[in-house]
Amino acid sequence: xxxxxxxxxxxxxxxxxxxxxxxxxxxxxxxxxxxxxxxxxxxxxxxxxxxxxxxxxxxxxxxxxxxxxxxxxxxxxxxxxxxxxxxxxxxxxxxxxxxxxxxxxxxxxxxxxxxxxxxxxxxxxxxxxxxxxxxxxxxxxxxxxxxxxxxxxxxxxxxxxxxxxxxxxxxxxxxxxxxxxxxxxxxxxxxxxxxxxxxxxxxxxxxxxxxxxxxxxxxxx
Amino acid sequence: xxxxxxxxxxxxxxxxxxxxxxxxxxxxxxxxxxxxxxxxxxxxxxxxxxxxxxxxxxxxxxxxxxxxxxxxxxxxxxxxxxxxxxxxxxxxxxxxxxxxxxxxxxxxxxxxxxxxxxxxxxxxxxxxxxxxxxxxxxxxxxxxxxxxxxxxxxxxxxxxxxxxxxxxxxxxxxxxxxxxxxxxxxxxxxxxxxxxxxxxxxxxxxxxxxx
Lengths: 221, 211
Fold this sequence. Notes:
Keywords (chain A): Signal
Structural class of chain B: alpha+beta
Number of helices of chain A: 4
CATH class of the largest domain in chain A: Mainly Beta
Structural class of chain A: alpha+beta
Number of helices of chain B: 4
Largest interface: A-B, 32 and 29 residues
Distance between the termini of chain B: 96 Å
Number of domains of chain A: 2
CATH topology of the largest domain in chain A: Immunoglobulin-like
CATH class of the domain at 47-192 in chain B: Mainly Beta
Order of helices and strands of chain B: HHEEEEEEEEHEEHE
Shape of chain B: elongated
CATH architecture of the domain at 47-192 in chain B: Sandwich
CATH architecture of the largest domain in chain A: Sandwich
Largest sheet of chain B: 6 strands, mixed
Number of strands of chain A: 11
Oligomer: heterodimer
Order of helices and strands of chain A: HHHEEEEEEEEHEEE
Helix content of chain B: 10-25%
Distance between the termini of chain A: 81 Å
Strand content of chain B: 35-45%
Radius of gyration of chain B: 27 Å
Strand order of the largest sheet of chain A: 1-11-10-7-8
């Protein structure tokens, strides 16, 4: 063995490991794509069935620190779906509907417009609430937000100036704790197994969907 | 002076070898960097799935099939004013069945026969209905192409309008021949690109498209 190899044998042995370390260090480029673009931060559900989310949400001109506690209450099959705020129709052939109820606790000032309730199956297929696939259907994009109360938005609104113009201002404030139903319309062949709630489309918590909840049913929403 | 002479130590044989090895390692690193794809055309490249019209392709987020390709100088947009082109409107109708989550196919471009990639925006049209996993829906895209560049055109569609890096992308050879393009250019009737009909909430099926 030459003197050079003998003298530098430790460095030479370490070289492949250092190269591997360098490649691993550059993996932040993958994280840049993966982390902010998906629900990658799973929050544990405690013994009471509650998931406690906490984080900062960027609003139009400020950052809001939020704490949201969510609990899955129940799920049941239903046979009608909402096409607008005041119109319900029977679920058409080839589809079925599931009503999912969650309990939410958060400050009345918390902006939860991005919070969604979702259903998932074992293959990762994910269904959102609403009936937008039907002609004239209704989107339920903020499916954690209760209806019929004031829900703060992330945009700067001059409340004093717009008080009379915005009908939402005449609604009562959102309570600190409430229940919310979300109705999912699924293809008949779909087999959801999990209820997922995500307040910011990055953090999420999951609860198993009780057996039979997604079966054909006859109760109203 | 003597201090300087002491400070400057000329490298011996081993020192020279070390210098050569370091320079070689740097050169090799530079060569590897030049050889590997960069953010623009490598790491940021989508996974391209090639297909022909009529093929159903399983992408990461949906099954997609280009059903029909048509072309004419005038594009019928239903209630909107028709658009006349000095070239051709190439209209492709697709069927999209999401498999991952609720989806509207948001990204479309057309690589014409000369290799130019025409993007959405301006007059080009993308009309895609919202869909939920397991439910087939329709999507119509229309691109304005010079007659002599229509042959050999390929349609590219993907899920996100903003972010296609590392995601699946479908590239469909539209199978347009030069003779077909000339035939379309001589048409006096319009080619249609209208919002695909959503599912009928009473029957759960998509109404038959108007001829």
